[in-house]
Automatic annotation (TrEMBL):
It comes from Dermatophilus congolensis. This is Tripeptidyl aminopeptidase. It comes from the Bacteria. The gene is tap_4. Its EC number is 3.4.14.-. Residues 461-558 form the Peptidase S33 tripeptidyl aminopeptidase-like C-terminal domain. Gene3D superfamilies: alpha/beta hydrolase. The keyword Protease applies. Residues 155-320 form the AB hydrolase-1 domain. Residues 1-24, 188-216 are annotated as: Disordered. GO terms for molecular function: aminopeptidase activity. Residues 1-50 form the signal peptide.
Amino acid sequence: MKNQPTTTPPSQRHRGGKSRRASVARMAAAILVATPVALTPWSAAQNAHAATKDPTVKKSVASVLAARKKPTPRTGAQKPLPALSKAQYLAQKPAWSYKTCSTAARVAADTGNSPYPIECARIRTPLDWQDFSKGSINLNITRLKHSSKARSARPLFVNPGGPGSPAGEFVSAIADSKESLRTTHDIIGVDPRGTGLSSPVECPLPDFTPKDQRDTSKAVRERMWQSYKQWTQACTSKHPKVLPHITTANTVADMDLVRQVLGFKTIDFFGTSGGSWMGAWMAKLYPHSTGRVLTDANAKFTGDWRSSFALMPQGFQRRWDKQALPWIARHNKDFGLGTTANEVRNNYEKIRSEVAKGRVRDLTPASFDATLMQMLYSDESLSSIGATLKQLNVSLRSSKGTVKMPSGQTFEPDDNESLLSTQTVRTAIVCNDTNFDRRRESLEKEYLDAQKKYPLQGSMLSVIAAPCAYWPWAPKKVPTINGSGSVNILMIQGEVDPATPVEGARAAHAAHSATRMITIDNDGNHGAFTSAPDNKCVNNIALAWLQRGIWPRQDVTCKGAPLPMENKIFEVTTP
């Protein structure tokens, strides 16, 4: 399509509550600290709006990546609690309290557009839904009750993705961005088993990360694979009784237990990024108790995890090549990095080469690229990419010695309560859920091919499934997710989403007969439903579905918004 004029003032196109931005900043940092094993599509509060606008969260991840500050596990080996009977599980009476909520959930609730009266409780769930005798684990539930005068409301269960991200702060993020949902729904987040405060399983991070992901030499590859092997063996030895049961099937069974304990006949569900996978499984496995399902920033949930993650290098490279670099070039007066995308790229490469020489304190090429990659999650962060490159460019040119990262581009993690469990659970889900070729030679070929095609982050993003080469347990039998026996799923998908590329969403939509899809032209945010500003086209359809049960008659294409500081859309063509 041609460039489309818009009348929306740039100053009004980017807003959002503190809790959403702060939560994204923390989560983006967690992802990047855990690179390469846990670099995944993550949208716990959607979009990395984060970190650059609000003084409470004006933080980046560069120093974390450079110094590799690795948190220490807060828990020892996670052992099952005593077993209960089915009747005992169903008879549980949650004791609700604000004090039971996680630190992240409380911060998100207290710093939103308005304070949200969240409350939390814990219940027990079977460790293995196929064998209750193996014991039980805890589930942490966060709830924000509806604000209407009606006695009851529909329950909306929400999941931020990962897989393995805790859901507590996502509850307030949803309320912050979609206030009208509070008039029709109780918003409920369940920390997935093994993460957050749901009997967290924590393993230390791997002990090796290449300084430069473009270095794919044999020596680097050998050390990397040895690190994966050591990490996997240590982690699975630490939690041998729990890790085999960290699966999507068990996780959605937990959700259905929470539904029953809370007394709901059916539940609605919103899942974003990896949460789309959970939504598709709930729709298939629990069609009689699952109501309206909405997914955003979709994984290829009709396939396997490896093939879904394999799309990420392409997605980030496209966002970098087709939107970020041209946008910086169009604003050369602000950034001075060139008037064409190629000129900007050349300046980036020059800066990167200086980083490789040790010219930027506490920064490596890998951490430099990963920091830029983190900023690709949201349109609002494009200005941070330009500003960071500009300041480094000026500093390196004006000094012969070492320089610092730009002021304000440092991050000190203030809450690591979920970092290690997210890392561990993500790996367990990927390895336990679906069968795929997990031979080292196959995974390594994908790694090498991706780095050649997608140099920004190809190799780092292509090894998420690498620990599965050493995983001791076979994948579980999984349901066929193709729409048969499933309730309807309304999908939202940005065309240029970097972390969950449109190709995966289109493949899932084509293979699933019970889906409709809203595609947002030229939209590069990771997630649209909770992003700022609201897309009225998306909102109208999605809220009509969640709040009134109106199912769209056909797929819909919505127009995206211009990028920051612009008032027209520049077309990005996707296959």
